[in-house]
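Problem statement: downstream parser choked on a complex file, so we are re-checking the raw output for the zinc ion run. The parser issue turned out to be on our end (a line-ending mismatch), but while we're here, posting the original submission so the record is complete.
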Amino acid sequence: MGESKRAEKILVAVAWPYASGPRHIGHVAGFGVPSDIFARYHRLKGNDVLMVSGTDEHGTPVMVAAEQEGLSPRELADRYNEVIRDDLRRLGLSYDIFTRTTTQNHYRVVRDVFRTLHEKGYIVEHTAMGAFSATTGHTLPDRYIEGTCPHCGYREARGDQCDNCGRQLDPIDLVGPRSRIDGTAPVFKETSHLFLDLPAFADALREWIDKQAHWRTNVRRFSLNLLDELIPRAITRDLDWGVPIPVEGYDGDESGKRIYVWFDAVIGYLSSTVEWAAARGTPDAWRDWWQNPDSRHYYFMGKDNIVFHTVIWPSMLLGYGEGGEIGAGKGKLGLPYDVVASEFLTMEGRKFSSSRGVVIYVKDFLERYDADSLRYFLTIAGPESQDTDFTWAEFARRNNDELVATWGNLVNRTLKNVHRHFGEVPAPGQLSDADEQILAAIEAGLASVGGEIENARFKAGLTEAMRLATLANQYVSEQAPWKLIESDRERAATILYVALRCVDNLKLFLTPFLPFSSQALHELLGYSDDIAAKIEFVEHAEEGDSHLVLTGQYESLRGRWRASELPVGQKLLEPEPLFRKLDPEAVVAEELQRMEETAAGGAD
Ligand SMILES: [Zn+2]
């Protein structure tokens, strides 16, 4: 079924979390969980999926955090790469490769892209005013300078970008600039840097973006607006932590310059694919993804990163053309097919802030609650299309009233009755109209839930799956098979068979959203294989070095998005509840207390 259609190649390119500290749930709400739902669904659908990302480990925030913790930048990156990849594994994010930007492979790919753009004349040198700390004389990174946005008047604009109007800035543009580290006004001095000549790509970008009618309106309009004011963008920095610059006079330690972190991080989408291909012993396999016009690239990120994915990275891809050492004249690199940008999550009505204690780290969350409860909340009530607020009361309510009361209850009473009275999937008698109707209604979810996920409407997809679970629950309540066990065992068997088929289908629809409980249910239903896949760490060795990547075996999941064929006679395991009910008052009291204590301790 559905096998006649050729598998599509879908690259799921997920924003690279920054390795300067542990990630909080706001970080994974926007792009982590949505990208995983998308990847899992497409695998089940039978498509060829490659989901790539890694930790972004260069730049000044890592240097500043390292200094505070008394570590070298590399040691700090090692520490948080480990923390972050462990968080992502426990959250069930099914990367094909989650790597890091400090690998030799990444350096090689980044330098090749840089060198090629330079050779083709897309990188130009400018002498610019650089910001230096008045106190230490060191370079003061853009993100550590704050002031008033010259465009919109927002008072807390950063040196690289205004979070209010979204425009890119240079520190010198800010009105009343000040250091975020010590509040002093920065000193501006002349320093020469290399710039990406973005205006050279304006026409090509406009022509391309004009054709992307399937993009979300806000992403497309925002990107087109940016084209009117493109300026060359600095891609080097006065730093000693980053990828060395492959241009004479800039290479080597004595230059005191490195490639700017944002330039190297976006290349991670490409370099991680190259790493993945090499690790499987098929070093050219990355070309099927990047130099193949039929491969579709979906990018997932927070809205503050749209510019990098619709303007800057596409410019780099256009400029690189057929390459370069890596591209080797074997085809142009693919541009983004879709850019799925999420809005922001706030916490109890406030912006996430580690220093003010308004924070909940993924690791801490998963120590106290189940990953699927978090995934459920972030999908059904997360910041998919508007800023949303996380509250503990709402988290507990949704867990109890929706996951436990609707889906958990349907599974629990169906499986309990079957297990107690039959022990296996019972053979049905003649199906009634009501039986046929509910089976057809649930199976329609293959198209309706799937369609929403394909359009990156994850909240709508999950809402539809839960609506179907409510229908199945109503069917079971109306038919009340437990009342018929003694008087009409055949009819009871038929109803329970139909209910099990509904549960089996709903399990499939929910697998992209809730992989852990879906796998557990899969096993309770007597299946012995995987529906959700194991995610594991694998070591990748390089010359004199090695690192762990997050990956998994997903091949067996392919093509499973089809109606339940639950075999009669399959033995069921002893049922166990899929979800834990929470005590809302206790959760709220305990967690708010914890936040107060963190805020009071508030050093970090
Ligand atoms: Zn602004």
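For whoever reads this later: The chain has two domains: 9-140+186-342, 391-532+561-584.
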